Amino acid sequence: MGLPMDDIHTPTVASGPTSTHTFKGTNNEGGSTLFDLIAEKTRLEEELKALSGVLDSHGVNMDTSLTTFDGYPRDDIDVAQIRTTRARIIRLRNDYKGLMSRIEDGLHSHHAQARNLAAMQSGSASAQNSASGTSGMASSSSTLEAPFARVNRLVEGSPAEDAGLRVGDKIRRFGNVDWMNHEKLSKVAETVQSNEGRNIIVKIQRTVGAGNQELQLQLVPRRNWGGRGLLGCHLLPL
To answer: I need a surface site. Which of 7, 37, 194, 233 has the fewest CB within 10 A?
Structure first.
């Protein structure tokens, strides 16, 4: 039946390097940009999800015992693969924790730079705003809230059209959802479902001539407007 293994639960099997990229901070430090860090966050989340699926396929989790009551390795599961998978998960969780800390630091620096830029340009921006409305602050606004989705299709008479959305508009913020947390637009769908019949603030970027215009709209998801869904539009991630 084999020999007892007291430390079989300890994930000591080597699982290779934890990441294929080295991040040195935000772009102002000569390393990866904030967008790169967010992309790496998504990659880690996807790999962690896949590894959790491996454990699920064996019917175990991170805490499930891998030995019998008398201390022998279980013969109904692949103990070696489970230990390797657990080791990889532990490493990636540590990577994820460090990455989130870097993202938080990067965001603080990012917003501080944007505020400084807005303050430096306040005089000229005021003059531009008097002539061209909101377009004068487009640069600083887009820095703080980068577009993450684009309106691909729009149904006539839909709640989206009634709110003022147009095909080609780029979504900068949808309620509390932005480029940092939209999770492949799944959070947009959740926001729509949980706010049926209520106002959602939607910030967009619209191309006007050779420039961009920043607008804030109020969208009310609703049924029985004559079409499918609560919005009547289709968004594509950028």
So the answer is: 7
What is residue 200's predicted lDDT score, i.e. its pLDDT?
A: 93
What is the DSSP code (8-state) at residue 177? B
Predicted TM-score (pTM) of the model is 0.46
Q: What angle do CA 150, 184, 44 make, to 5 degrees?
A: 140
| Burial class of residue 85 (count of CB atoms within 10 Å of its CB; 0-12, 13-18, 19+) | buried
Beta carbons within 10 angstroms of residue 210's beta carbon: 5
Phi, psi of 212 (to 5 degrees): -120, 145
* Tokens linked to 13: 């099997």
CB atoms within 10 A of CB 13: 14
Residue 169 near residue 151 (C-beta atoms within 8 A): yes
Q: Phi then psi for 20, rounded to 5 degrees?
A: -95, 0
Interior/surface letters 20-51, b for 16+ CB within 10 angstroms, e for the rest: eeebebbbeeeebebeebbebbeebeebbeeb
The tokens describing 123, both together, are 């005089």
| Beta-strand relationship, 149-154 and 211-219 | unpaired
